Amino acid sequence: MFKKEETLKPGTDPGPLITAEEFSHPKSRLAGYDFLIIAGAFLLLATIFSTHRVTDFMIFCIFAMSFDLIYGYMGRLSFGHLLFLGTGAYSSGLFIKYFHGNPLLAMLVGIVAAALLGMLVGAIVVRATGACFALMNLAFNSIGFFLVLSPLRGITNGEDGFGIHALSVGFFNPASKISMFLFVLFFLLLVFYLLKRLTSSPYGIMIRSIKEDEIRVKFLGYNTYFYKWLTFVIAASLAGLAGTLTALNYKYVNPNVMDVHGNVGVVFACLIGGAGRLYGSIVGGVVYMLISNFLPIYIHRWEMFLGISLLIIVFKFRKGIWGYIQEMEEVRKRQKVVPEIAGKGVAQR
Amino acid sequence: MTLTILYGFTIGAILYFISIGLSLTFGTMRVINFAHTLTYCIGVYMLITFISLFKGNFFPSAILAILAVIPISYLIERFIIRRLYGESLDYTFIATFAITLIGVDSIKWIWGVNPLPLSDPIGTQLNLWDFTFPVYRVLIVTIAIVLFFALELFFKKTIVGKIVVAALEDKDGVRCLGVKVERHFLIVFILGSALAGLGGVLYAPISSVHPYMGLGILLLCFAVVIVGGMGNLRGTFVSAFSLGMVMAITARYWSQGAEVMVFIVMAVVLMFRPIDI
Question: What is the pTM of this model?
Fold first, then answer.
């Protein structure tokens, strides 16, 4: 059974134990160490599964990280983040189809389009919190889905979608799977680096403080609206990047990329990996993609499995996989420290 | 045009049936219940089962279907929703969504994925002056209006209703008076679920029946509750009928745009009156 004291506490999970010192100066260990681990892990995955599939995993991880910036760091649950992924995919796809086949230019167009939409939607949405924020995002997502499906049928080709033939530029050839894999891996590392820098900067502290208590941040004289809006725009443009990569990877765009029901996946990924931690969203993204790709083959009732595991996460396992690993590490460190202190005590006596 | 208005009232009535539960659950327990329309969906599938048992007799099977929803909603409240009191909104969101996933998959397991046919149980048309109305739709609107007054009476005159209204205002205050609030929450939850079941049973013959039918209407109901005000029963009544009318009138001129128009209305309302929840 649940404990009363725990449920009465407001806010989300307590997170890892950190001091004020650590909160304002998080360890920014930006050596090649992190990159090597991530790149190595994905290369290993690519040898186990097909390259194309792992490219897909990585794109989803980029998307999960951009979602985590809003959900894990700023503490606002969005149920319509796929809108920006879809915008990125559609605008880059349409650019290639109607104007020019250069994939890099198309990516730029996709990211800019998603950022512009993020600015517009963010200005409205960011004023709300909690369920209102989630539902407004959901509403905008369903409006976007509807727009590409039916009124813009003339250019987007409705439900059927359209194919994309991107030209190759320099080293990057979208038709080659290996080249695509390396290209996406580069962007994954770039996004990881950017978000790592961003979240450990003073700005990152600001958005985490907004998550903890927005009113207090306002009392300190900060314009929280602007920071929330900025975060929303950054997350939207990164989701747009993931969208352009999706379009290039599948060479095909259809309305499913911004299907409203797909939003559960990314929430699940962030939760299972551990919200508010960049590594967590990468781990969660890979785990979710593995589950959604391979589980339906082995277990027929995979939606039920997903539901039950979500319930278990919510009731028993809130920190997620990465949070759990961190906790284990902390416990180990404490066990190391305790005998030392005990030894000192004996010596003093 | 008269027919459009009637259709608007019908959709409004259905939205009203389903939104009451959502609004009450939020107002009393502060739980956003994503699994609310699961009972709506289960009610419809129960109806189909009972109709085949009773050889096409609609009304007794409808009542049985609504009654069959009650134990299911009891189980959901007892084992999941009750643990979510006082939790942050994201976790209640996700937990109740998980219930929806499990429920929809069970429905697919038991009844299959394919849409099932269900026809208008009355089928007669009412001729009034120059217009013809389907009797069934008039019946739905009548039930909605009767229900509105019945609920008003329930919340004003009975002791259970009074406790619930008081808990909407101040939950801790009621608890201090020695009232077992949780038990009344359970009653409210079951009432809301049964009304959602009623909505489903009444709406199914004039719409399509498939396992995902709950998700589509859930978003509309959230819009209704947000526009009407969370936990505000009269507001829910007014907003359900006005949004139903918005849907019907949009659908008359631009059939695909009906649902989107509701979200646009909702976004506009939220822009001018954001709710801090």
Answer: 0.82
